[in-house]
Amino acid sequence: MSRSRTNSGAGELLVELRRETAVPLHQQLESGIRERIRQGLLRADTVMPSTRALATDLGLSRGVVVEAYQQLVAEGYLVSRTGGYTQVAPAAARAPQAGTKKQPSGPPRIDFKYSRPDVSQFPRAAWLRSIRRVLNETPHLSFAYLDGRGADELRMALADYLNRVRGTSALPENMLICNGFAQGSRLLLQVLAASGFQRLAVEDPSDNELRDVAETAGLKTVGVPVLESGLDVEALERSGADVVLVTAAHQFPTGAVASAETRAALVEWAGRRDALIIEDDYDAEYRYDREPIGAMQGLAPDRVVYAGTASKTLAPGLRLGWLILPSRLVEAMAAAKVVDDRGSPVLDQLTFADFVARGEFDRHLRRMRPRYRELRDALVDRLADRLPDLKPIGVSAGLHVMTWLPPDLSEDAVMRAALDRGLGVYGLAPYWVDRAGPAGLVFGYGGLTEAAVVEGIDLLADAVASVRDHS
Ligand SMILES: Cc1ncc(COP(=O)(O)O)c(C=O)c1O
After folding, report:
1. Ligand 1, closest atom to CA 184?
2. Which residue, judged by its Cα, is nearest atom 2 of ligand 1?
3. Is 107 helix (H, G, I), strand (E, B) or coil?
4. Are residues 264 and 179 part of one domain?
5. Which domain of life is it from (predicted)?
6. Do 220 and 326 share a structural domain?
7. How confident is the prediction for the chain on average, in pLDDT?
C-alpha cells in the first residue's frame, strides 16, 4: 500500500500527498488545491492557511508551499492580499463543467406556495429581550433535562394564553411542548395506535402529510368529506373511525369553519363512540372579518387533543408546537417525547414563555393581522378583476385562499403555464384523500409582498389565457 500523508487531523486544509511518486510535491499540492477549488469545495474568498502553517502541517518545506501558491495565483485560482494572506479568487468559483446535467431551474420568482408566514417580520428585538431575560434570570437547574411535557414556564404561559384567547380549558399539567405539529401529531398517533385506536378519519380534502404518518403508526386512514359547515359528521359516523383529525376553526385547505352544530355533533359522536378528536388549530390567530370560533377542546377537554403551533404566527423554523391532552394521555405522551428526543430545546421554550407571558405574542399578532389581511384583500380583489371565474371559497382568515378551477382548466396545465412565467401556483390534487375531487388552486400569500401578490395574479391570468388558447 502506498504511503501518503494528509493534514486531515489538526490541519486547516485537507490535501493528500504521495511521497513515493515521481510527481514533485509542489505540483501535487497545486493540483490538490486546484481540484478542490474547481469542485467548489474551496469557495470563493476562502482564506487559505498561511504558507508556514500549511508547510508545518503537511511536513513540507515552506518553499514548496510558496511555489504552489504562486503557481495558483498565476493561474487565477488564488489571489494574494495585502496583509500577506491568500484567498481563493472570486472568479475561480466553480464553473459548470461540460457535459454535466442541466441544473434544474431555480425556484419561481413569485411563489404562492402555502405555509409561509412573513418571516422577515419575526419580532427579533422582543425575542432578544426575552432571551436576555431568560439567560440573566433562569436558575442553572432549568437547563437540565426537562420533564417530557416541556418547561413548566411555557406550559403555564400557553395555558393562560389559550384559555384567554382560544376558549380552551387547559391545565399546565396537561400540556406538552413539541417540535411543531409534525412531531406532536406523530407521537400522538403512535401512542393512540399503541393503546388500541385503529382508524383515523381525516377531512377530505386535507393536508396529506399526516396520512403517511398515521399509516406508519399502524392506523388506517379514511377520508370524510368537508361541507361548508365543516366535517360531514354523518359520513364520519359511517366511517367506523375511532379518532378524527379536524381543522375546525379554519379548514385546510377549503377555509370552511365548522358550525356550532357540527362541533356539537362531533363532540357528541366522540362521547358516544368513546372516540377522540384531534383539533389542529394551526392558524386560528388570523381572523380578518369576524371573531374566531372558540376551540372545541373547551367543549370537551377529555375527548379533544388540541394542537397549536408557532409556525404560522412566528416562524416555522422555530419548531415550537404544543398539545393540550386529556389527562389519560399525558403520561404516555410525555414518555414518548422523552424517547423521541429528550425534550425540545429549553432556551427556546423559556424564551417563548417569557415572550407570551409579557404580552409580546399578542402585540406581534396585533401587528401582523392587518398586514396579512391586506395581502389577502389584494389577492381576492385582483382575482376578481383578472380571473373572475376563480372564486375564492372559505372565510377571510389565515394565510391561504382556495379557489375551484372551471372545468375547462386542469391543475397541471395551469401550474405548468404559470411556472413558465416564473410563478408557483399549486393544485388541490395532493389534498384529496381517496378520490380525485374537483380541480382547484391553493394560494399561500403569507410570505409575499402586496406588489408580488398582484403581479402573481396578473401572471396567472396570462397563464390561464395561454392554456385556454391552446385547448
Ligand atoms: C394544516 C396544518 N397544520 C399544522 C401545520 C403546522 O405544522 P408544524 O407545526 O409542524 O410546522 C401546518 C403547516 O403548514 C398545516 O398546514
Report:
1. 10
2. 282
3. coil
4. yes
5. Bacteria
6. yes
7. 92
